[in-house]
């Protein structure tokens, strides 16, 4: 089992179907459009995951926000996909994970194929934070800080999900930017 989890992380680390990385986000000055009022409190904590399981051990239900073609929608979609992966690790049922993954996404199929058929009863990873970036009207990049909970690769790491327009989104690639430590 440890070999399967390690293999899945190695697949994520080595598989990137994109030729070029996503462009860097604009400077912070370019992102600032309004000045918050005195009533607004700044926070750097991640929003809670919005995907909720439909049953105790069933797959999550996709939140409406994950269907939006916005940065927040892309973030919610990635969190939903990871919750689906967690559900698969609990039950062994990979459900529709590959329905939202491009046929060319080797890292997607590597992660899904590493799920034990009988399940482990535990989550695989938790999203600590997610930051989406729209690239034109049909693409998005979501950088996630995750905590891997199972296997030799346990610890904090950074994964980048490249998304394309789909119904709602389609994962094109998953790239491990920093290994869990």
Structural description of this entry:
The protein is α+β, with helices and mostly antiparallel strands and 181 residues long. Helix content is 25%, strand content 25%. The protein contains four helices and six strands. The chain has helices spanning 2-14, 28-31, 71-91, 106-113, and strands at residues 52-53, 60-61, 125-135, 139-148, 155-165, 169-178. The strands form two sheets. A four-stranded antiparallel sheet has the order 3-4-5-6. Strands 1-2 form a two-stranded antiparallel ribbon. Strand 4 (139-148) and strand 5 (155-165) form a beta hairpin. The longest helix is centred in the middle third of the chain and has 21 residues, at 71-91. It is globular and about 40 Å long. The relative contact order is 0.21.
Succession of helices and strands: HHEEHHEEEE
- The total count of helices amounts to 4
Unreliable stretches: 1-50
Strand percentage: 25-35%
State the secondary-structure class: alpha+beta
> Major sheet: order of its strands?
3-4-5-6
From the alpha carbons, calculate the radius of gyration and give it in angstroms: 16 Å
Mean pLDDT: 77
- Main beta-sheet annotation: 4 strands, antiparallel
Cα distance spanning the termini: 19 Å
What is the general shape? globular
